[in-house]
Amino acid sequence: MNETIKTILNHRSIRSFEDKKLTDEQIETIVKSAQAAATSSFVQAYTIIGVTDRDKKEKLAEAAGHQRYVVENGHFFVFCLDLHRHELAAEMEGLDKKDIIESIESTEMFMVGCIDAALAAENAVNAAESMGLGICFIGALRNNLNEVTKILKTPDRVIPLFGLCVGYPAKITGQKQRLPFENIYHKEEYIQDDEVLKDQLKQYNNDIIDYYKERTGGRRADRWTEQMAQKVSHPTRMYMKDFLKNKGLPLN
Amino acid sequence: MNETIKTILNHRSIRSFEDKKLTDEQIETIVKSAQAAATSSFVQAYTIIGVTDRDKKEKLAEAAGHQRYVVENGHFFVFCLDLHRHELAAEMEGLDKKDIIESIESTEMFMVGCIDAALAAENAVNAAESMGLGICFIGALRNNLNEVTKILKTPDRVIPLFGLCVGYPAKITGQKQRLPFENIYHKEEYIQDDEVLKDQLKQYNNDIIDYYKERTGGRRADRWTEQMAQKVSHPTRMYMKDFLKNKGLPLN
User: Fold this and answer.
1) Residues 52-91 of B with CB under 8 A from A
2) Strands (E), chain B
3) CATH superfamily of A3-174
4) ipTM surpassing 0.90, yes or no?
5) What ranges do the domains of chain B cover?
6) Residue in A closest to B127 by C-alpha
């Protein structure tokens, strides 16, 4: 197994960092690694904002749900979907707003932006972890994007998708076992038999119960299906559709 | 610079592969690397379909736009957003469909699925490239998802997002220079000055013109802004919104 695959398979989220900032060189390596990712039709539909200002980090943490690691880390990146850049490009080429609005406001371009930004982010993660740094994604930035877009002064058609804390790990956590290989990977076509899929999930539940029991000395014994049922029966961030529309992305 | 960062920075799309299949062990390493990626609230909202059947690959290539490398590669993966698994999980926990529909059908859950799948895919890319393999993303699978979902027999709430050709490179292509660092990476907040951003894009246009001139012996001299203006003034895949709705994802 080579070093890259070892790094990838060793991933875990780190939520406690040493009080040591990343150097400019480290930040540049991480961002350039992000940029090296594939991008749909060369659109590069994302922007990365690096936040070091303490006051700004405190405000972001407050918007996201008061996670201390949003403030206390080596560097805080925010990955944004960015279609504003393409509006500028079109303007530079003499196009009128009305010529581009159908495309820019489409569901397809939104998908392109989400996927482009995430491909870039995972490269940033692998680069950071290969340097001995730890990371934690902050999807909770999406809890309050009205506030986050104000703090980061993003224009319309730029949507902060998630944060990424990077830093020197102060506490290494355990790895959570993923879904069974057979449940994630299907050969030739999607397995249609829900009973087979459910059996795989039952097997997985047992693995996850063991994980929690061991980690908590028997106090927790959650099933994965229980966690997921809990999650999907409590809708979150239902403001998203209207928020995106207000920011110039009605997803037509 | 470590091996992982070298691998990442050396990425380029490969569109011509040797006639040599990936081994089961290689496929397993790639999929397990994908699974090691971070996932929002542990939802793991994706499924990977591996296609080797020649007839099926021909049909997928036809749906995507007749790219030969969709058929001729070492292995063809399709990364799908998958919220069907969470419906099953909720059913196993005794929930009724009506208890979960608001969450499952939300824009937020769709974003989670797109991001989860792309994070996993970029790990697959890094694992494959670290083993000396080449890759090419096939976003064009989204040209005709009605056909693709039939070929892959995906149920409702499973959306093929993109394909990934992996194989032994037969022809190594050049790297296309990315947007200027300062255009992608903003410090503390989004740079509000569009004139500054436009100047950066002008500088980038010159770099890209040089790239095309060199690669084509002077026959092509495209600007990046020209390519983007062309793209956003020609809307594509405008069926997406209705398609997603028909597949149980109205993005509420």
Assistant:
1) 52-53, 56, 80, 85-90
2) 46-51, 75-82, 134-138, 158-167, 185-187
3) NADH Oxidase (3.40.109.10)
4) yes
5) 3-174+236-246, 181-221
6) A5
